[in-house]
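Appendix C reproduces, verbatim, an entry submitted by the partner laboratory led by Prof. M.T., so that reviewers can inspect both the input and the predicted structure.
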Amino acid sequence: MKALVKASAIFLALAFSVNSWAYMLGGTDVGGLDSIIGTASLGNSSDAQEEAWVESVLGFNVTFEYKNDGAFSWNIVDGETDVYAQLLDSDPEFYLVKLGGGNFLGDTHVLYDNAASLSYAVIDLLALGQGATIDIARVSHISEFNGTSVPEPGTLALFGLGLLGLMVAARRQA
């Protein structure tokens, strides 16, 4: 019985430790802020060059899914001044934002982990380290990699089944 209580406590702690912060755009939940994985200045790079750079940063092969070359509808999220959201085409695991249109204080290519909501890119302009030289109109294009439609809750369900299996095994031993 003690093992069952202990396993239940661990499961509940893990279930509630998931970050539930989400940004809203009107009435739409666009997820949380996406994490920057890497930055570089690649110049006027091709799709193949960007894919090679993304693979070098991640350490594994990716699939180029889609490139948005300017048909953007970036919207500032509710209650923020520097956080923007953009609907993505292929629900990618990763996306690259290319900044163009002038000199910058930092890198022009920014790779994001799109874990919060696969349908939206959610970026914070201040996190790019460009200071006052950057605004959302300087986004040249967005390249999407490893498009997927696999929902994250499946991972949590699989983890829960594993814990259930451990509890059953512990009960059989007692």
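The longest strand covers residues 139-147. Additional entries are available on request from the coordinating office.
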